[in-house]
Amino acid sequence: NTTEEFVSPEYIRNRFSKIMSNMYKEEVPLYGELLDLVHDINKDVLSESKELKEHLDRTGEKTRLNMERHGAIRLGKPYELFTMRRLFKVMGMYSVGYYDLATAGVPVHATAFRAIESTALNQAPFRVFTSLLRVDLIDNEQLRNNVETILENRQIFTEKALQLIDQSEKEGGLTKEDAETFVQEALETFRWHDTATVDYEMYEALLNQHRLIADVVAFKGPHINHLTPRTLDIDKVQISMEARNIPPKDNIEGPPARKCPILLRQTSFKALTEKVTFKNNVQNEEMGEHKARFGEIEQRGAALTQKGLDLYHELLNKTRKAIGGSPTAENAAEYNQLLAENFKVFPDNYSELQSEELAYFHYFTTDKAKKIAKDKKYTKVDINQLLENDYLTIEPMVYEDFLPVSAAGIFASNLGTDDAKREYQGTSNQELFENDLGEPVYKLTKWYEDMQDESIVKCLAEINA
Ligand code: OOG
Ligand code: NI
Known about the structure:
Layout: E1 6-7, H1 9-27, H2 29-48, H3 50-59, E2 69-75, H4 78-90, E3 94-100, E4 108-114, H5 118-123, E5 127-133, H6 141-152, H7 159-171, E6 174-175, H8 176-190, H9 200-209, H10 211-217, E7 226-229, H11 234-243, E8 264-269, E9 273-278, E10 286-291, E11 295-300, H12 306-323, H13 332-342, H14 350-355, E12 361-365, H15 383-388, E13 392-396, H16 404-415, H17 417-420, H18 430-437, H19 444-464
Parallel strand pairs: 2-5
Antiparallel strand pairs: 1-6, 2-7, 3-4, 4-5, 8-11, 9-10, 12-13
Helix pairs in contact: 1-2, 1-8, 2-11, 4-7, 7-8, 9-10, 12-13
The protein binds 2-oxoadipic acid and nickel (II) ion.
């Protein structure tokens, strides 16, 4: 095979995202309805705001909006994480960030697999939030041993998928035909199975330890548990969901509504109750129910620097502390009001976000820059002056990742609040995670820092040319 015969990772990723979305639409019809709703609202928002449209055009995000989505899976053992990394690599997805959910009461740690170049991201923005069960946090020794045995005996990947991963690694890519086989085979791993691999008694034991443990351990594979389209106005979607009888969770996770959105705001609808057949002596199967799969919507805003993230967390924690932890149905309105109040100190215009170094930006040269005096060589220290004199303009970089507190809130709203109250202390273990993954994760802020630098270097080259 020569390289020319291979399709691009972007092609494979888009193809996979598409067939996954089609499968999920069939499995969870409300997801399809949600897609339509988001699509309609995005169209309205774009037709109402020329400014927003131009902004999305400049950053290259407009073309990707309708194909943009993320999903989530929960894995059980190191081999699964290691192999999932190899599988995603075939589609040009790499692990970015480490998220410890244990401190928030969910016994997993996680990363996000996604594209890491902005052109690649704009062509195929599919991401998968991937968590790994922390078996070491199960305190009941007998149950822990049972979990290990059950997981040891499962193979979540098909033979053919494994073979094509090998082939892609060896040859540096896949032909169109092999890519099609690959995405179909990979999809098998994400499919829902309505037959559990354990009997009802074991399922109950797992459930009683933590609802999430049952979801990971009792099934044949890591069914995709949600897919999330990106909206341009999450408040509108939240209201319209209620009007369409899609029951949304009580509050939107993340920062409050702002003129200049930052990071990520998310809401979801509750997991479906699904019929499951449990293993027993074959004649005597037992029926039961399981809740795992839900729908989610997200609105993305500007990526924040470490300084911005620190301020975000400070204001969020201040708000949570004041109302006594995670918001509930009863105090959601009070929480939202307090959140908006507390965030008044977070600058809400791009020029201040830039000058205070709270957010990351793409830099562009203006037409005026063509006529700039060439009497000196401009460097990074001149950037703010060049901006002020209209030789440069900025666009915020979109936040491509996730938020641990929000993720825990999404987990909790679908697992039942009792589980979320559990505490696992002092357990963050990125080293263990990276060992199991077989590779270090990309550091979150460094990725944005590098992208911003790249765009500044490009502008300076244009100006100095
Ligand atoms: C993942 C929850 C995290 C998000 O958008 O923050 C997530 C899960 O429930 O498995 O997808
Ligand atoms: Ni999600």
